[in-house]
Amino acid sequence: MSFYERQFLLRSKDVDMYRRLRLSRLFELLQEAAITHTEELGMGREKTLDKGLLWVVTMQQAEILRMPEYDETITLRSWPGETMHVFFPRYYQLNDAAGHPLVKANALWMLVDEKTRRMIFPDRYGVVINGLVTGEELPLPSAPPRLPCTEEKAFTVPFSYVDLNGHMNNTRYFDLMEDCIPAAAEGKRLKSIGTEYTSEVCLGDVLSLRWGAQDEECYLEGALEKPCFRMRMKYEE
């Protein structure tokens, strides 16, 4: 099985005011790599979307050695891990032009029924992806530990945050996080991030957001009637 690999030249649309790759754009690149490679492996929309099955992310994480910057050429490599019952692990690595690692990341994907929004068993639908083990994989993501929350506000999901699955796209949560956490606007360098999505959020839903910080770590969570997501970030001291 081959890897997915693609080069990118970072343009102004890809970076933030500090000329570093925008966090949401990083996860967009990872998402697009996963979808494209899955299609190349023969598990494209005719096996999933056209049959009423939706790919969703349940957890993801990234370790950031250095965030790439404006006008820098980077290479993104991605590969699938061994399927775990209903979860499809996916691994990613961003390298600089010299081949040095910049970002390592992974995610757990699963399939849900478009109508019922319930998890499905992929083998019943012939969705099979053979995994690789390279020895370069991060440990699989887990639920981010909570931190005390000192701030809160309501957030209404706008049309621009909703994707073809009919819910707020996983990458938009990173924009939401950076709009809440002062460390991002202050230009502090992000070292790691972990996220968990437990319930989908749709157009017009009003999320109750709560967040807080402790030393160099920050935490954000959101809920409707029940918890929907949580994320924890670590910045440089």
Question: SSE layout and pairings?
Answer:
Blueprint lengths: L3 E6 L13 H18 L12 E12 L8 E8 L7 E8 L5 E13 L37 E6 L15 H9 L1 H4 L4 E8 L8 E9 L2 E7 L3 E9 L2
Antiparallel strand pairs: 1-3, 2-5, 2-7, 3-4, 4-5, 6-8, 7-10, 8-9, 9-10
Gyration radius, rounded: 18 Å
Count of separate structural domains: 2
CATH first level of the largest domain: Alpha Beta
Examine the coordinates and then state which fold CATH places here, giving the name of the CATH topology of the largest domain. Answer: Thiol Ester Dehydrase, Chain A
SS-based structural class? mainly beta
β-strand amount: 35-45%
Distance between the termini: 41 Å
State the CATH superfamily name of the largest domain: Hotdog Thioesterase
Count every helix, treating DSSP H or I runs of 4 or more residues as helices: 3
What average pLDDT do the residues reach?
Answer: 96
Give the biggest beta sheet: 10 strands, antiparallel
Unreliable stretches: none
Describe what you observe in this structure.
The chain has 237 residues and is mostly beta strands. It folds into two domains: 122 residues, Hotdog Thioesterase (Thiol Ester Dehydrase, Chain A), CATH 3.10.129.10; 85 residues, Roll (Thiol Ester Dehydrase, Chain A). The protein is 13% helix and 36% strand. It is built from three helices and ten strands, in the order βαβββββααββββ. Strands 1-3-4-5-2-7-10-9-8-6 form a ten-stranded antiparallel beta sheet, with helices on one face. The longest helix has 18 residues. The protein is globular. The relative contact order is 0.16.
